[in-house]
């Protein structure tokens, strides 16, 4: 599959193999790539790792093909039982942590909806429920909230807010998305990301500073809709930025090579990071790592009894 996708991608861009090598070499992960190695990939004699296959498709702005590779590699069609899928998701989230250490956290991830839920997808910040704005100001601080709002393009094309309501119209959860760049995100964060900044050719960021939900259904729905939003906007990210106040979720993101980049206020209760406790931490994760996880979220969501209808509001 990969060799066909690679050749199709190159020919679609009307590039020679040498041109393709030059393009990939602009990315730090492939700066030592030579034509011989690339040629062996395209004729199928050798195959790079799944992670590198996904990265190659993302460099070529083909998130759809990157997802196809991730799904094929996951092999989730062979899984029959919900228990198998849940165990796979647990293993992927917490590969280095024992189950007993996370009893309280895992019970929250396994919380399930027992009521009908609808989701309004809002692309105009003027139409956001005032309750959510107040919640985010309280969580992030008013200045930080306003700084994030400045990331929104004049046409609102890089902004999405998901509002989850029960059948009685009560707000149950929310998820906010900004499609931006690392340069712009650095302006928002007081603590600059501790990553190499000498090569920012590829610096698009899917920023989801409000992501977590204790409902598995809402949590998976939010992650999957974030990816769908990127597909719809033809946006290919290099990183995904997430803020979380959950220790278990932080450990999962760190297992995906995530780097803690900034912190909320210190707090007596909240998320532990080294010897301090914070209201939240911000984590920057390689986007290709998250793409590789998407088939698992798709499988767990498809196994759930309740599904969420997402309605885009104009």
The largest pleated sheet is described as:
8 strands, mixed
- What's the β-strand tally? 10
User: Given the helix and strand composition, which structural class is it?
Assistant: alpha+beta
Tell me, briefly, the overall form.
globular
- The helix count comes to 13
| Amount of beta strand | 15-25%
Order of helices and strands: HHHHHHHEHHEEHEHEHEEEEHE
Regions with little confidence, pLDDT below 50 for 5+ residues = 76-81, 94-114, 195-199
Which bin fits the share of residues in helices? 40-55%
Average pLDDT over all residues: 79
Task: Evaluate the radius of gyration.
Answer: 20 Å
End-to-end separation? 39 Å
């Amino acid at each position: 599959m990969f060799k066909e996708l690679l050749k199709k991608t190159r020919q679609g861009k009307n590039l020679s193999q040498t041109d393709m090598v030059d393009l990939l070499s602009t990315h730090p992960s492939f700066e030592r790539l030579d034509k011989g190695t690339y040629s062996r990939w395209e004729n199928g004699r050798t195959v790079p790792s799944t992670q590198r296959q996904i990265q190659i498709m993302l460099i070529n702005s083909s998130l759809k093909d990157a997802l196809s590779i991730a799904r094929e590699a996951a092999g989730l069609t062979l899984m029959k039982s919900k228990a198998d899928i849940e165990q796979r998701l647990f293993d992927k989230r917490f590969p280095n942590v024992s189950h007993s250490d996370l009893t309280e956290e895992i019970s929250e991830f396994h919380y399930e909806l027992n009521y009908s839920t609808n989701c309004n997808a809002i692309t105009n910040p003027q139409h956001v429920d005032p309750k959510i704005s107040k919640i985010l100001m309280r969580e992030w601080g008013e200045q930080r909230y306003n700084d994030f709002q400045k990331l929104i393009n004049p046409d609102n094309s890089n902004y999405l807010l998901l509002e989850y309501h029960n059948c009685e119209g009560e707000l149950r959860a929310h998820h906010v998305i900004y499609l931006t760049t690392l340069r712009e995100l650095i302006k928002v964060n007081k603590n600059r990301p501790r990553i190499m900044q000498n090569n920012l050719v590829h610096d698009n960021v899917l920023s989801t500073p409000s992501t977590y939900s204790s409902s598995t259904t809402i949590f998976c729905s939010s992650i999957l809709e974030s990816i769908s939003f990127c597909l719809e906007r033809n946006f290919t990210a290099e990183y995904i930025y997430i803020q979380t106040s959950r220790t278990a979720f932080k450990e999962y993101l760190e297992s995906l090579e995530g780097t803690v980049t900034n912190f909320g206020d210190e707090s007596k209760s909240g998320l532990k990071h080294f010897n301090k406790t914070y209201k939240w931490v911000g984590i920057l994760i390689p986007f290709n790592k998250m793409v590789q996880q998407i088939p698992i979220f798709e499988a767990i969501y498809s196994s759930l009894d309740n599904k969420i209808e997402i309605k885009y509001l104009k």
